[in-house]
Amino acid sequence: MSRPLLTVDEMERVNSAGRERGCHRCGAGEPGTASGNFVPEYHPPRIFGTTSVVIPSCLSCSRIAGAHVTISVHRRFKCA
Ligand SMILES: [Zn+2]
Asked: What is the tens place of the pLDDT at every residue in 33-55?
């Protein structure tokens, strides 16, 4: 069985930061997820290397960021 991406404590730190300061991109105080958890956003994105920071993001911003990462990866590896 694989390890979850974040431990319960790590996820609680993400949620705590989100409740205090909101989504790091838009400032929304509610994550917009069914679970009520903020979406942990990795900086830099995990696909680009070692992650150094995990910050709270709302669902809408997470989806937009995910699309940007996908486009970036496509450009880097498929259209070079
Ligand atoms: Zn947001």
From this structure: 999 999 999 887 777 777 678 99
